[in-house]
Amino acid sequence: MLELIVISTLNGVLFGMLLFLLSSGLTVIFSMMGVLNFAHASFYMLGAFFGYQLTRWIGFWPALVLAPLLVGVVGMAVERYGLRNTHRHGHVAELLLTFGLAFAIEEIVSMIWGKSPVDYRIPAALDFPAFTVFSTNYPAYKIFMLAISVSIFVALLIVLKKTRVGLIVQAALTYPTMVGHLGHNVGRVFMVVFGVGSALAGLAGVIAGPSLVTQSDMASLLGPILFVVIVFGGLGSLPGAFIASLLIGLIQTFAVALNGSLASAFGPLDPSLGPSVLTDIWNVTIAQIAPILPYVLLVLILIVRPMGLLGTRET
Amino acid sequence: MLEVRDLHAYYGKSHILQGVNLDIRAGEVVSLLGRNGVGRSTTVKAIMGEVAPQGIVRFKGRDIAGLPSHKIARCGLGYVPEHRDIFPGLTVRQNLLLGIKDVRRPGRWRIEGMLEMFPNLAARADTPAEVLSGGEKQMLTVCRTLMGDPELIMIDEPTEGLAPLIVQQVGDLIAKIAEAGVSILLVEQKLSIALRISHRVYLMGHGRIVFEGTPDELRANDEVRKQWLEV
Question: pTM here?
Fold first, then answer.
């Protein structure tokens, strides 16, 4: 049991930090521009495929740097030539643009790389067990993923809190027009933030790709959970996104690892032993409901606290 | 210094500004008066590029109509909107820091000087700015814009919703700004401050300028005041 807890906590924190790499960009972009970027998870997928392709051409380490940069450039182009021109037609148009973009990216990816998973592997240098907890070998690559996500988190925090650019970004989160009136080029700030946000999503893709499955449906699988995270944490709140990412990462990992069901909780008094139409429900395991847990959380938070954990505005 | 000629602006289909003309010369304090909804704020927003302007807006001889706001600000035009957009979560000092356009070229105003002028702000320099009172927020927004060293500052309804004592303080601050040689366009509804500190006043009605003159001329003209100001 202790072993399960240790391993699941590690995995949960890791999944949570990956979620944060994505949700941080999404939530910052949302509060600045008022646009929920439906294509954000697609940038994550692009990161994974760019990472895969570049790894084949030039190796994993250069790909680790180049692929996120490429995704960042794609993101900046989307902002500069797509969203900025759509902006004057209102939020619905912008939303539709990102919505369409998500489909377009998915189609393009499956046209180039096909619909089945690609062979994106953990680099040999990191393919060994880092340590052994009880009887489980914990892979070094997962520790590497954790280290990267944590250092990005720290770097992001320092840039936001300690630099002048960070100050301007923080101010633009609430009153972008006012920031413009003070003589700062808000358009450029938007473009850079969009680029950095996309690059972070791309980085998440590059490092998650070898560990999870790199496939053309990975964006549509992760996308909904991402929205749960930022709504749960409070739209526009970075600390909220951080807490929600970790929470949902942990909940999902633990739920998958646990094998209990309602029936087993009752032990010898198991109600499903008797004839009942509810037998199936009693015997559903926690692992089986793991995929819907985030959405249950979403519904709960919307009922109890519509602005999310640390949000300030109504969602 | 600022020339506005035949300025028009629209919100959707409604024609808000219908040919506004006004001038502000260097070192002048000018008030833009009128009832609610006649287009005073829109005039300032159109000058600042927040509302799309049609017509001529020239600042120091340069055509600035339709430029993005940050470029207009960098020409030396400061704008304090009426809704007091202080950045929550940032401290008073950080709010002031954001007013500086370029840290390598400091202007004539210093953060320390500002704080000396307003002991209330100084006491809370490092606390989040959202805890300030309405009057303190107003002082902060004006000071923040001053940090960008504007040559002309446009202040929209600085005394709205403030207690009489604070209104007095805002008036003193504006007088101090004028002493420093900054031109001022004050958008106001209350006559008291405007008539006390302005060199000239414009009166707006229905999207146009309906009266232009000195404060004394406005005081003397009962008919205009009755028609366009008093309820």
Answer: 0.84
- Strands B152-156, B77-80: parallel, antiparallel or unpaired by DSSP? parallel
For residues A23-44, average pLDDT: 89
Residue B228 at interface with chain A, using a CB cutoff of 8 Å: no
Q: Note which residues in 66-105 of chain B have CB less than 8 A from chain A.
A: 68-70, 73-74, 79, 81, 85, 87-90, 94, 97-99, 101, 103
CB contact under 8 A, B68 and A183: no
E strand intervals along chain A: 129-133, 136-139
The pLDDT of residue A292 = 87
Separation between Cα atoms, residue B158 and residue A79, nearest integer Å: 36
ipTM of the complex: 0.91
Q: Could you give the percent of chain A with pLDDT greater than 90?
A: 55
Distances, alpha carbon A109 to alpha carbons A103, A218, B171, B214, in Å: 10, 11, 63, 69
CB proximity under 8 Å: A 92-121 to B:
none
Do A182 and B73 count as a contact with CB atoms less than 8 A apart?
A: yes
DSSP class of residue A115 equals S
Number of CB pairs, chain A paired with chain B, less than 8 A apart = 59
Which chain A residues are within 8 Å of B99, Cβ to Cβ?
Answer: 182
Nearest Cα of chain B lies from the Cα of A175 at a distance, in angstroms, of: 7
Report the chain B residue with the minimal C-alpha distance to residue A312: B88
Name the DSSP letter for residue A118.
P
CB contact under 8 A, A182 and B145: yes
Phi, psi of A265 (to 5 degrees): -65, -25
Predicted confidence (pLDDT) per residue in B88-118, tens digit? 889 999 999 999 998 888 788 888 888 888 8
